[in-house]
Amino acid sequence: MSTIETRTTPRLQFGWEEWLSLPDLGVPAIRAKVDTGARTSALHAFDIETFGPSSRPKVRFTVHPIPGREDLVIPCSAPIIDRRDVTSSNGETESRYVISTTLDVAGHAWPIEITLTNRAQMASRMLLGRQALLDHITIVATDRFLQPELSYDVYHSARMRTAQPARALRVAVLSREHNYSTRRLVEEGEARGHTVEVIDTARCYMAINALAPEVHYDGKRLPRYDAVIPRIGASITPYGTAVVRQFETIGTYCLNGSAGITASRDKLYAHQLMARARIGMPNTAFAASPKDTGNLIGLVGTAPLIVKLLESTQGKGVVLAETKKAAESVISAFRGLKANFLVQDFVKEAAGEDIRCLVIGNKVAASMKRSGAEGDFRSNLHQGGTAKTVRITREERETALKAARAFGLNLAGVDLLRSENGPKVLEVNSSPGLEGIETTSGKNIAALLYKEIEAMVRPAPVRRRKPR
Protein backbone atom coordinates (compact mmCIF):
# COMPACT_ATOMS: atom_id res chain seq x y z
CA MET A 1 0.00 0.00 0.00
CA SER A 2 1.33 3.42 -0.92
CA THR A 3 1.10 6.25 1.58
CA ILE A 4 0.01 9.83 1.00
CA GLU A 5 3.08 12.08 0.80
CA THR A 6 3.88 14.39 3.71
CA ARG A 7 6.45 17.15 4.15
CA THR A 8 8.60 14.82 6.27
CA THR A 9 9.18 12.45 3.37
CA PRO A 10 12.81 12.29 2.18
CA ARG A 11 13.63 14.32 -0.89
CA LEU A 12 13.12 12.64 -4.26
CA GLN A 13 14.94 13.21 -7.51
CA PHE A 14 13.08 13.17 -10.82
CA GLY A 15 14.68 13.10 -14.24
CA TRP A 16 13.02 14.63 -17.28
CA GLU A 17 11.12 11.35 -17.77
CA GLU A 18 9.90 8.96 -15.08
CA TRP A 19 7.79 5.83 -14.62
CA LEU A 20 4.72 6.28 -12.41
CA SER A 21 1.29 4.80 -11.75
CA LEU A 22 -2.24 6.19 -11.38
CA PRO A 23 -3.92 3.61 -9.11
CA ASP A 24 -7.28 5.41 -8.88
CA LEU A 25 -7.64 5.10 -12.66
CA GLY A 26 -6.36 1.54 -12.92
CA VAL A 27 -3.15 2.57 -14.72
CA PRO A 28 -0.30 0.65 -13.01
CA ALA A 29 2.50 1.81 -15.31
CA ILE A 30 2.94 4.84 -17.55
CA ARG A 31 5.90 6.94 -18.65
CA ALA A 32 5.53 10.67 -18.07
CA LYS A 33 7.53 13.63 -19.28
CA VAL A 34 8.38 16.02 -16.45
CA ASP A 35 7.85 19.63 -17.57
CA THR A 36 8.21 22.40 -15.01
CA GLY A 37 7.17 24.89 -17.69
CA ALA A 38 3.66 23.46 -17.69
CA ARG A 39 1.34 24.36 -14.79
CA THR A 40 -1.08 21.40 -14.89
CA SER A 41 -0.39 17.76 -15.70
CA ALA A 42 -2.03 16.21 -18.78
CA LEU A 43 -3.07 12.63 -19.61
CA HIS A 44 -3.58 11.16 -23.06
CA ALA A 45 -7.32 10.28 -23.19
CA PHE A 46 -9.79 9.12 -25.85
CA ASP A 47 -13.60 8.92 -26.01
CA ILE A 48 -14.00 11.71 -23.46
CA GLU A 49 -17.66 11.99 -22.45
CA THR A 50 -19.44 13.68 -19.55
CA PHE A 51 -22.31 12.11 -17.62
CA GLY A 52 -24.16 12.34 -14.33
CA PRO A 53 -26.21 15.18 -12.79
CA SER A 54 -25.17 18.79 -13.40
CA SER A 55 -24.61 19.23 -9.66
CA ARG A 56 -22.05 16.37 -9.59
CA PRO A 57 -20.78 15.94 -13.17
CA LYS A 58 -18.44 13.11 -14.06
CA VAL A 59 -16.31 12.29 -17.05
CA ARG A 60 -15.45 8.94 -18.52
CA PHE A 61 -12.67 8.27 -20.95
CA THR A 62 -10.28 5.60 -22.16
CA VAL A 63 -6.53 5.54 -21.71
CA HIS A 64 -3.97 4.02 -24.08
CA PRO A 65 -0.95 3.84 -21.74
CA ILE A 66 1.49 2.28 -24.21
CA PRO A 67 2.59 4.38 -27.21
CA GLY A 68 1.68 2.68 -30.46
CA ARG A 69 -0.72 0.25 -28.74
CA GLU A 70 -4.16 1.74 -29.37
CA ASP A 71 -5.51 -1.82 -29.09
CA LEU A 72 -4.82 -1.74 -25.32
CA VAL A 73 -7.70 0.17 -23.73
CA ILE A 74 -8.30 1.06 -20.07
CA PRO A 75 -11.77 2.53 -19.35
CA CYS A 76 -11.77 5.20 -16.62
CA SER A 77 -14.15 7.63 -14.94
CA ALA A 78 -13.80 10.39 -12.36
CA PRO A 79 -15.65 13.42 -10.96
CA ILE A 80 -14.99 16.67 -12.84
CA ILE A 81 -13.40 19.29 -10.58
CA ASP A 82 -12.94 22.03 -13.19
CA ARG A 83 -12.82 22.93 -16.84
CA ARG A 84 -9.92 25.08 -18.00
CA ASP A 85 -8.55 26.67 -21.11
CA VAL A 86 -5.03 25.32 -21.62
CA THR A 87 -2.60 26.89 -24.10
CA SER A 88 -0.04 24.51 -25.57
CA SER A 89 3.56 25.34 -26.43
CA ASN A 90 2.56 26.02 -30.05
CA GLY A 91 0.03 28.66 -28.97
CA GLU A 92 -3.20 26.63 -29.45
CA THR A 93 -5.83 26.96 -26.71
CA GLU A 94 -8.05 24.01 -25.77
CA SER A 95 -10.82 23.70 -23.18
CA ARG A 96 -10.13 20.59 -21.07
CA TYR A 97 -11.83 18.72 -18.25
CA VAL A 98 -9.82 18.58 -15.02
CA ILE A 99 -9.92 15.63 -12.62
CA SER A 100 -8.11 14.81 -9.39
CA THR A 101 -6.36 11.49 -8.95
CA THR A 102 -3.56 9.84 -6.99
CA LEU A 103 -0.01 9.79 -8.34
CA ASP A 104 2.22 6.95 -7.11
CA VAL A 105 5.99 6.91 -7.58
CA ALA A 106 8.07 4.19 -5.91
CA GLY A 107 5.54 3.78 -3.09
CA HIS A 108 5.13 7.52 -2.43
CA ALA A 109 1.64 8.79 -3.31
CA TRP A 110 -0.09 12.17 -3.37
CA PRO A 111 -3.13 13.73 -5.09
CA ILE A 112 -2.63 15.71 -8.29
CA GLU A 113 -4.81 17.47 -10.86
CA ILE A 114 -4.79 16.21 -14.45
CA THR A 115 -6.33 17.61 -17.62
CA LEU A 116 -7.64 15.17 -20.24
CA THR A 117 -6.55 15.66 -23.85
CA ASN A 118 -5.55 13.80 -26.98
CA ARG A 119 -1.75 13.44 -26.93
CA ALA A 120 -1.57 10.96 -29.80
CA GLN A 121 0.97 13.13 -31.59
CA MET A 122 3.15 13.48 -28.49
CA ALA A 123 6.02 11.14 -27.58
CA SER A 124 4.81 10.88 -23.96
CA ARG A 125 1.37 9.66 -22.95
CA MET A 126 1.47 11.89 -19.86
CA LEU A 127 2.90 15.26 -18.97
CA LEU A 128 3.78 15.96 -15.34
CA GLY A 129 3.37 19.69 -14.61
CA ARG A 130 4.78 21.76 -11.75
CA GLN A 131 1.54 21.60 -9.71
CA ALA A 132 2.15 17.87 -9.26
CA LEU A 133 5.76 18.35 -8.08
CA LEU A 134 6.03 18.72 -4.32
CA ASP A 135 8.62 20.90 -2.61
CA HIS A 136 10.85 17.95 -1.74
CA ILE A 137 11.21 16.84 -5.40
CA THR A 138 14.39 17.89 -7.15
CA ILE A 139 14.45 17.90 -10.95
CA VAL A 140 17.61 16.73 -12.70
CA ALA A 141 16.90 17.86 -16.26
CA THR A 142 19.87 16.00 -17.78
CA ASP A 143 18.83 12.54 -16.58
CA ARG A 144 15.82 10.23 -16.88
CA PHE A 145 14.37 7.36 -14.85
CA LEU A 146 15.93 8.29 -11.53
CA GLN A 147 13.09 6.46 -9.77
CA PRO A 148 12.55 2.67 -10.05
CA GLU A 149 11.52 1.66 -13.55
CA LEU A 150 8.23 -0.15 -14.14
CA SER A 151 7.22 -2.39 -17.03
CA TYR A 152 4.34 -2.52 -19.51
CA ASP A 153 4.26 -6.28 -18.90
CA VAL A 154 1.90 -5.60 -15.98
CA TYR A 155 -0.93 -5.01 -18.50
CA HIS A 156 -0.72 -8.65 -19.56
CA SER A 157 -0.80 -10.11 -16.04
CA ALA A 158 -3.71 -11.98 -14.49
CA ARG A 159 -3.76 -9.47 -11.60
CA MET A 160 -5.06 -6.67 -13.84
CA ARG A 161 -8.66 -7.92 -13.68
CA THR A 162 -8.86 -7.92 -9.88
CA ALA A 163 -6.72 -4.79 -9.52
CA GLN A 164 -9.06 -2.55 -11.48
CA PRO A 165 -10.50 0.20 -9.23
CA ALA A 166 -14.18 0.95 -8.85
CA ARG A 167 -15.38 3.48 -11.39
CA ALA A 168 -18.67 5.22 -11.95
CA LEU A 169 -20.80 3.64 -14.68
CA ARG A 170 -23.49 4.99 -16.95
CA VAL A 171 -26.38 2.52 -16.88
CA ALA A 172 -29.64 2.44 -18.82
CA VAL A 173 -32.72 0.63 -17.48
CA LEU A 174 -35.01 -0.29 -20.37
CA SER A 175 -38.46 -0.08 -18.82
CA ARG A 176 -41.89 1.34 -19.55
CA GLU A 177 -42.97 1.18 -15.91
CA HIS A 178 -41.81 3.19 -12.90
CA ASN A 179 -42.57 0.34 -10.51
CA TYR A 180 -40.74 -1.00 -7.46
CA SER A 181 -38.10 -2.83 -9.50
CA THR A 182 -37.26 0.19 -11.64
CA ARG A 183 -37.10 2.50 -8.62
CA ARG A 184 -34.78 0.11 -6.75
CA LEU A 185 -32.44 -0.16 -9.72
CA VAL A 186 -32.17 3.62 -9.90
CA GLU A 187 -31.80 4.10 -6.13
CA GLU A 188 -29.18 1.41 -5.67
CA GLY A 189 -27.22 2.37 -8.77
CA GLU A 190 -27.00 6.00 -7.68
CA ALA A 191 -26.11 4.96 -4.12
CA ARG A 192 -23.12 3.09 -5.61
CA GLY A 193 -21.99 6.21 -7.47
CA HIS A 194 -23.35 5.29 -10.91
CA THR A 195 -25.57 7.32 -13.20
CA VAL A 196 -28.78 5.41 -13.97
CA GLU A 197 -31.23 6.52 -16.65
CA VAL A 198 -34.66 4.97 -17.25
CA ILE A 199 -35.39 4.64 -20.97
CA ASP A 200 -38.88 3.88 -22.30
CA THR A 201 -38.21 0.95 -24.61
CA ALA A 202 -41.12 1.74 -26.94
CA ARG A 203 -39.80 5.27 -27.58
CA CYS A 204 -36.41 4.04 -28.78
CA TYR A 205 -35.72 3.89 -32.49
CA MET A 206 -32.71 2.61 -34.34
CA ALA A 207 -30.31 3.55 -37.11
CA ILE A 208 -29.24 0.22 -38.54
CA ASN A 209 -26.06 0.22 -40.60
CA ALA A 210 -22.76 -1.61 -40.65
CA LEU A 211 -20.41 1.24 -39.76
CA ALA A 212 -22.26 3.23 -37.10
CA PRO A 213 -25.32 1.52 -35.60
CA GLU A 214 -27.14 3.83 -33.18
CA VAL A 215 -30.10 3.97 -30.81
CA HIS A 216 -32.12 7.20 -30.78
CA TYR A 217 -34.58 8.49 -28.20
CA ASP A 218 -36.78 11.59 -28.25
CA GLY A 219 -35.02 12.99 -31.30
CA LYS A 220 -31.46 12.47 -30.06
CA ARG A 221 -28.87 9.74 -30.31
CA LEU A 222 -28.51 7.95 -26.98
CA PRO A 223 -25.06 8.23 -25.38
CA ARG A 224 -22.70 5.33 -24.92
CA TYR A 225 -23.76 3.27 -21.90
CA ASP A 226 -21.51 0.98 -19.90
CA ALA A 227 -24.42 -1.39 -19.28
CA VAL A 228 -28.08 -1.90 -20.12
CA ILE A 229 -30.56 -3.60 -17.78
CA PRO A 230 -33.51 -4.82 -19.90
CA ARG A 231 -36.93 -4.82 -18.22
CA ILE A 232 -38.91 -5.74 -21.34
CA GLY A 233 -42.67 -6.04 -20.89
CA ALA A 234 -44.39 -9.08 -22.41
CA SER A 235 -46.60 -6.88 -24.60
CA ILE A 236 -43.59 -5.46 -26.50
CA THR A 237 -41.26 -8.45 -26.50
CA PRO A 238 -40.46 -8.40 -30.25
CA TYR A 239 -39.70 -4.67 -30.36
CA GLY A 240 -38.02 -4.67 -26.95
CA THR A 241 -35.64 -7.47 -27.90
CA ALA A 242 -34.86 -5.64 -31.16
CA VAL A 243 -33.74 -2.63 -29.08
CA VAL A 244 -31.62 -4.88 -26.86
CA ARG A 245 -30.15 -6.48 -29.98
CA GLN A 246 -29.20 -3.01 -31.26
CA PHE A 247 -27.33 -2.25 -28.02
CA GLU A 248 -25.57 -5.60 -28.41
CA THR A 249 -24.58 -4.61 -31.96
CA ILE A 250 -23.08 -1.37 -30.64
CA GLY A 251 -21.05 -3.37 -28.12
CA THR A 252 -22.87 -2.35 -24.92
CA TYR A 253 -22.95 -4.92 -22.12
CA CYS A 254 -26.56 -6.11 -21.71
CA LEU A 255 -27.36 -7.88 -18.44
CA ASN A 256 -29.71 -10.21 -20.33
CA GLY A 257 -29.24 -10.74 -24.04
CA SER A 258 -31.95 -10.51 -26.67
CA ALA A 259 -31.78 -14.25 -27.48
CA GLY A 260 -32.37 -15.26 -23.86
CA ILE A 261 -35.27 -12.84 -23.43
CA THR A 262 -36.91 -14.04 -26.64
CA ALA A 263 -36.54 -17.71 -25.69
CA SER A 264 -37.93 -17.20 -22.18
CA ARG A 265 -41.05 -15.48 -23.54
CA ASP A 266 -41.87 -18.27 -26.03
CA LYS A 267 -43.04 -21.02 -23.71
CA LEU A 268 -42.94 -23.72 -26.38
CA TYR A 269 -39.37 -22.86 -27.36
CA ALA A 270 -38.45 -22.48 -23.68
CA HIS A 271 -39.58 -26.02 -22.91
CA GLN A 272 -37.74 -27.34 -25.95
CA LEU A 273 -34.55 -25.61 -24.74
CA MET A 274 -34.94 -27.11 -21.28
CA ALA A 275 -35.62 -30.56 -22.73
CA ARG A 276 -32.43 -30.26 -24.80
CA ALA A 277 -30.50 -29.35 -21.63
CA ARG A 278 -32.11 -32.31 -19.79
CA ILE A 279 -33.75 -30.08 -17.19
CA GLY A 280 -36.62 -31.63 -15.25
CA MET A 281 -40.07 -30.19 -16.02
CA PRO A 282 -43.72 -31.34 -16.00
CA ASN A 283 -44.75 -33.58 -18.92
CA THR A 284 -45.66 -31.16 -21.71
CA ALA A 285 -47.41 -31.53 -25.08
CA PHE A 286 -48.29 -29.21 -27.96
CA ALA A 287 -50.34 -29.66 -31.13
CA ALA A 288 -51.89 -27.41 -33.77
CA SER A 289 -54.70 -29.62 -35.09
CA PRO A 290 -58.00 -30.04 -33.15
CA LYS A 291 -58.09 -33.67 -34.33
CA ASP A 292 -55.16 -34.36 -32.00
CA THR A 293 -56.84 -33.27 -28.76
CA GLY A 294 -57.27 -36.78 -27.37
CA ASN A 295 -53.75 -37.84 -28.19
CA LEU A 296 -52.44 -34.54 -26.80
CA ILE A 297 -54.03 -35.21 -23.43
CA GLY A 298 -52.81 -38.82 -23.51
CA LEU A 299 -49.18 -37.70 -24.00
CA VAL A 300 -49.30 -35.67 -20.79
CA GLY A 301 -51.19 -38.12 -18.62
CA THR A 302 -54.51 -38.19 -16.85
CA ALA A 303 -56.53 -35.31 -15.46
CA PRO A 304 -56.14 -32.94 -13.74
CA LEU A 305 -54.15 -31.06 -16.39
CA ILE A 306 -52.80 -27.54 -16.88
CA VAL A 307 -53.63 -25.70 -20.11
CA LYS A 308 -51.32 -22.71 -20.56
CA LEU A 309 -51.21 -19.97 -23.21
CA LEU A 310 -47.75 -19.70 -24.77
CA GLU A 311 -47.55 -15.99 -23.96
CA SER A 312 -49.10 -16.08 -20.48
CA THR A 313 -47.51 -13.94 -17.74
CA GLN A 314 -48.06 -13.52 -13.99
CA GLY A 315 -50.40 -16.54 -13.95
CA LYS A 316 -52.81 -15.10 -16.53
CA GLY A 317 -53.88 -17.50 -19.28
CA VAL A 318 -53.23 -20.58 -17.11
CA VAL A 319 -56.20 -22.91 -16.52
CA LEU A 320 -56.54 -26.04 -14.35
CA ALA A 321 -58.75 -28.67 -15.97
CA GLU A 322 -59.73 -31.15 -13.26
CA THR A 323 -61.31 -33.72 -15.63
CA LYS A 324 -60.59 -34.94 -19.13
CA LYS A 325 -63.88 -33.46 -20.33
CA ALA A 326 -62.98 -30.08 -18.81
CA ALA A 327 -59.57 -30.25 -20.51
CA GLU A 328 -61.18 -30.92 -23.88
CA SER A 329 -63.53 -27.95 -23.36
CA VAL A 330 -60.70 -25.56 -22.46
CA ILE A 331 -58.58 -26.75 -25.40
CA SER A 332 -61.54 -26.29 -27.74
CA ALA A 333 -62.12 -22.77 -26.41
CA PHE A 334 -58.46 -21.77 -26.81
CA ARG A 335 -58.41 -23.16 -30.35
CA GLY A 336 -61.55 -21.19 -31.14
CA LEU A 337 -59.63 -18.05 -30.17
CA LYS A 338 -56.75 -19.15 -32.44
CA ALA A 339 -54.50 -19.10 -29.37
CA ASN A 340 -51.32 -21.14 -29.02
CA PHE A 341 -51.10 -23.15 -25.82
CA LEU A 342 -49.39 -26.02 -24.01
CA VAL A 343 -50.91 -28.89 -22.07
CA GLN A 344 -49.00 -29.96 -18.96
CA ASP A 345 -49.23 -32.56 -16.25
CA PHE A 346 -50.51 -31.14 -12.94
CA VAL A 347 -48.02 -31.91 -10.15
CA LYS A 348 -50.42 -32.69 -7.30
CA GLU A 349 -47.78 -33.08 -4.60
CA ALA A 350 -46.71 -29.44 -5.08
CA ALA A 351 -50.04 -28.54 -3.42
CA GLY A 352 -50.36 -25.14 -5.08
CA GLU A 353 -46.84 -24.06 -4.06
CA ASP A 354 -43.75 -23.30 -6.09
CA ILE A 355 -40.25 -22.00 -5.38
CA ARG A 356 -38.86 -18.87 -7.04
CA CYS A 357 -35.07 -19.02 -7.28
CA LEU A 358 -33.50 -15.71 -8.25
CA VAL A 359 -30.30 -16.37 -10.20
CA ILE A 360 -27.71 -13.60 -10.57
CA GLY A 361 -24.63 -14.57 -12.56
CA ASN A 362 -23.55 -18.02 -11.41
CA LYS A 363 -25.31 -17.97 -8.05
CA VAL A 364 -28.80 -18.36 -6.63
CA ALA A 365 -28.97 -15.01 -4.80
CA ALA A 366 -32.24 -15.71 -2.97
CA SER A 367 -35.21 -18.04 -2.97
CA MET A 368 -38.78 -17.99 -1.68
CA LYS A 369 -41.72 -20.37 -1.50
CA ARG A 370 -44.91 -18.98 -3.01
CA SER A 371 -48.35 -20.28 -2.07
CA GLY A 372 -51.56 -19.61 -3.98
CA ALA A 373 -54.50 -17.74 -2.52
CA GLU A 374 -57.18 -19.94 -0.97
CA GLY A 375 -58.87 -21.96 -3.69
CA ASP A 376 -56.32 -20.93 -6.38
CA PHE A 377 -53.75 -23.40 -7.71
CA ARG A 378 -51.61 -20.52 -9.05
CA SER A 379 -48.91 -19.28 -6.68
CA ASN A 380 -48.12 -16.00 -8.44
CA LEU A 381 -47.91 -13.03 -6.07
CA HIS A 382 -49.74 -10.94 -8.68
CA GLN A 383 -52.72 -13.30 -8.29
CA GLY A 384 -52.93 -12.85 -4.52
CA GLY A 385 -50.40 -15.48 -3.51
CA THR A 386 -48.14 -15.21 -0.48
CA ALA A 387 -44.43 -15.86 -0.05
CA LYS A 388 -42.00 -16.88 2.67
CA THR A 389 -38.32 -17.73 2.84
CA VAL A 390 -37.30 -21.28 2.03
CA ARG A 391 -34.11 -23.29 2.21
CA ILE A 392 -33.55 -25.00 -1.14
CA THR A 393 -31.75 -28.28 -1.67
CA ARG A 394 -28.51 -28.68 -3.59
CA GLU A 395 -30.42 -30.35 -6.42
CA GLU A 396 -32.87 -27.44 -6.61
CA ARG A 397 -29.98 -24.95 -6.65
CA GLU A 398 -28.20 -26.81 -9.44
CA THR A 399 -31.44 -27.08 -11.43
CA ALA A 400 -32.06 -23.33 -11.18
CA LEU A 401 -28.51 -22.51 -12.29
CA LYS A 402 -28.70 -25.01 -15.14
CA ALA A 403 -31.97 -23.47 -16.34
CA ALA A 404 -30.59 -19.91 -16.29
CA ARG A 405 -27.50 -21.06 -18.21
CA ALA A 406 -29.65 -22.82 -20.83
CA PHE A 407 -31.15 -19.42 -21.70
CA GLY A 408 -27.89 -17.49 -21.33
CA LEU A 409 -29.43 -15.21 -18.69
CA ASN A 410 -27.40 -13.34 -16.05
CA LEU A 411 -30.60 -12.44 -14.20
CA ALA A 412 -33.40 -15.00 -14.07
CA GLY A 413 -36.34 -15.95 -11.92
CA VAL A 414 -36.52 -19.75 -12.11
CA ASP A 415 -39.80 -21.21 -10.85
CA LEU A 416 -39.60 -24.78 -9.54
CA LEU A 417 -42.09 -27.35 -8.33
CA ARG A 418 -41.15 -29.93 -5.71
CA SER A 419 -42.30 -33.26 -7.09
CA GLU A 420 -41.80 -36.89 -6.12
CA ASN A 421 -39.23 -37.16 -8.92
CA GLY A 422 -37.18 -34.11 -7.93
CA PRO A 423 -37.43 -30.42 -8.91
CA LYS A 424 -39.34 -29.56 -12.07
CA VAL A 425 -38.95 -26.17 -13.76
CA LEU A 426 -42.20 -24.42 -14.57
CA GLU A 427 -40.81 -21.23 -16.09
CA VAL A 428 -37.70 -19.10 -16.51
CA ASN A 429 -38.45 -15.38 -16.20
CA SER A 430 -35.98 -12.96 -17.82
CA SER A 431 -37.46 -9.87 -16.10
CA PRO A 432 -38.19 -11.06 -12.55
CA GLY A 433 -39.64 -8.53 -10.14
CA LEU A 434 -37.53 -7.46 -7.17
CA GLU A 435 -40.21 -6.48 -4.65
CA GLY A 436 -41.35 -9.94 -3.56
CA ILE A 437 -37.88 -11.48 -3.34
CA GLU A 438 -36.33 -8.48 -1.52
CA THR A 439 -39.20 -8.23 0.94
CA THR A 440 -39.28 -11.96 1.65
CA SER A 441 -35.54 -12.65 1.80
CA GLY A 442 -34.51 -9.36 3.40
CA LYS A 443 -31.58 -9.23 0.96
CA ASN A 444 -30.49 -6.22 -1.11
CA ILE A 445 -31.00 -7.93 -4.46
CA ALA A 446 -30.45 -4.70 -6.42
CA ALA A 447 -26.98 -4.36 -4.87
CA LEU A 448 -26.10 -7.95 -5.82
CA LEU A 449 -27.26 -7.19 -9.34
CA TYR A 450 -24.95 -4.17 -9.59
CA LYS A 451 -22.03 -6.22 -8.25
CA GLU A 452 -22.54 -8.57 -11.19
CA ILE A 453 -22.69 -5.67 -13.65
CA GLU A 454 -19.61 -4.03 -12.14
CA ALA A 455 -17.65 -7.27 -12.39
CA MET A 456 -18.57 -7.62 -16.07
CA VAL A 457 -17.86 -4.04 -17.19
CA ARG A 458 -14.76 -3.40 -15.06
CA PRO A 459 -12.52 -5.98 -16.69
CA ALA A 460 -8.81 -6.05 -17.27
CA PRO A 461 -7.62 -3.74 -20.07
CA VAL A 462 -9.28 -4.64 -23.35
CA ARG A 463 -7.07 -5.56 -26.26
CA ARG A 464 -9.06 -4.59 -29.29
CA ARG A 465 -8.41 -6.28 -32.59
CA LYS A 466 -6.29 -4.24 -34.90
CA PRO A 467 -7.96 -3.55 -38.28
CA ARG A 468 -6.56 -5.64 -41.10
TrEMBL record:
SUPFAM superfamilies: Acid proteases, Glutathione synthetase ATP-binding domain-like
Top-level lineage group: Bacteria
Cofactor entry: Mn(2+); Mg(2+)
Keyword Manganese: yes
Keywords: ATP-binding, Ligase, Magnesium, Manganese, Metal-binding, Nucleotide-binding, Protein biosynthesis
GO molecular function: ligase activity
Residues of the ATP-grasp domain: 271-454
Protein name per the record: Alpha-L-glutamate ligase
